[in-house]
Amino acid sequence: MHRTSEQSEPSGSVHPHWITVQTTRTVLVVVHTITAWNRLSDILPTFDSDRRVQLVFTFPDVSNVTGDVERQLGSSGAKIITWDRALTDKFDLAISVHHSGDLHKISAPLAIMSHGMGYSKIARESGIGNRESGIGNRESGIGNRESGIGNVYGLGREWLVRDGSVPAAVVLSHVNDRQRLTLTAPEALPNAVVAGDPCYDRMQASSHYRHAYRAALGARADTTVVTVSSTWGPGSLLGQHPDLINDLLSELTLDNNILAAVVHPNVWFAHGPLQLRTWLADAVRSGLRLIPPIRGWQQTVLASDVMVGDHGAVTSYAAAQGIPTLLAAFPHEEVATGSAPDILGDLAPTLHPLLPLPGQIAQAITTHDSTRMQAVTSLATSRPGACLDTLRSTFYELLNLSEPDHPAPEFPYAAADLMPETQPLQACWVACEPEPNRSSTSSVRIRRWPADVTPRRNRGHRTTDACLVVHEDHPRRDLNRNADIIVVSKRPDIDSDELLRRTLQHRPSCSVAVVEVGPGRLRLRHRVGGLSEAISPNPVRGPMPTAGIAATAHTMAKNSRAAGRELTMLIGDQRISFALKDIDSEPS
């Protein structure tokens, strides 16, 4: 049924007159969703630099949550043909990482594989119909879970046996899936290929770029990167604990923690990107690194010190890469028995959202047992490091074409592709405490928490003696009105001292106004005590750098003996020294 090698024009092209490179094979790549596009980026290097092969892409529009696929395909430069054209033209090979739609009607040998960590999810609906199983309940698949078979999405007869035919290659990540096939779709067993997991292999090849990924998130050597991962559906982390991100932000200090969030594309596009950004707006203003749905999640996982997740593939990939993992939600009835996520659900510790969170995060890191979690890694792939080679051999055999004489390249995930959505911090709570074991009162430990997130009852940081520092441009009027310290921007049209005086006039509840008048120089006007200046030769790293010095200077200014002395502020692993001197003693 497929095209002969003599046909060289790419399917769906314009007049042959415009064809420059005379290819001998055409491969149809079927892209159902953004998740599929993400997975296909891991496997398309099998055709790297082969000028005998033309790739064409199609979008079947059979998924409930298609999202941004058409635009992404267009922006990538892919040659796109319509789904109708894909079902009428002939090709030498078709590749899909989803099982829905009329794939059996494509005139080409079909190679099909999973788009997550193996075949691990119980199907939400029995039968595929015209739409991908994606919305609804999973009651039809729960009943068989205990048998170890289950109605596993992608491995049942309804996905693999269509009109009496099976795909030319059913690509599996683990040998255990062959055993499942013998029970669910024995007709497909002769065409099963155990190739391993392309994403796992590529993450392994990228692990030595961890420092670059952490830098892209803004993390330093002493920073703990906490990543929250949520798949989609009511049983997911966000479905069960929609306030967990804010709770983590309100309890973890800004000084040595970064919180990132990887949210499944189905959440982004079922609700709409604008809606998700609206829901998480306060978290993003509080320093959350929101990872876009197109790319960057693998880099974020590899940059992480701990993962807080659920039964989604991202959480399992983190555990398989040796990242300490906590489970905040895990509906066991939605996961195929014996799969890598299923074993993770049995082995990983649980995060208890109603208990203090920093201690649980720290304990997960310090007590992580990599040998215990090796069971998850061993179930992620049966052929670690060999997936691309196996896929290339499989694809080229179906193409009836000799393999290129060079191995398929395995590109590390680019640090430049990790572009988290975040905003500069403009409001935080600052606690100034005497440095432990020091008799001097001129050395203080600073701890900061974002002020944009409102902790739920009995949540948030446990320090009551903290001052609120807010930048004048902050959009929340309540924070602006109630700030203890207001940070203003220097203006060319007004003297800085006059600017500070006016600022205090317009904010009667504010105790201090502060402006940066030069590198390492902060001018402060105290409502009681007049003007002072803090001079520091070393910059403060991290969000809202003026907040710590301003709070320290304000605290120390209450002690008249502090004026003219060198003060020390400890913030994270930084020890910042600065001099505090009086400019005048006139009250504003």
Short description:
The protein has 588 residues and is α/β, with parallel strands linked by helices.
How does the SSE layout of this entry go?
Layout: E1 25-30, H1 34-43, E2 53-58, H2 69-76, E3 80-81, H3 83-88, E4 93-96, E5 110-112, H4 139-142, H5 157-160, E6 169-172, H6 176-184, E7 192-194, H7 198-206, H8 210-217, E8 224-230, H9 237-240, H10 244-251, E9 257-263, H11 265-271, H12 273-279, H13 281-285, E10 289-291, H14 297-303, E11 306-309, H15 313-320, E12 325-327, H16 340-347, H17 357-366, H18 374-380, H19 387-399, E13 427-434, E14 443-450, E15 467-471, H20 477-482, E16 485-488, H21 496-506, E17 512-518, E18 521-526, E19 530-535, H22 545-557, E20 566-571, E21 574-582
Parallel strand pairs: 1-2, 1-4, 2-3, 4-5, 5-6, 6-7, 8-9, 8-11, 9-10, 11-12, 14-20, 15-16, 16-17
Antiparallel strand pairs: 13-14, 13-15, 17-18, 18-19, 19-21, 20-21
Helix pairs in contact: 8-14, 11-12, 15-18, 16-18
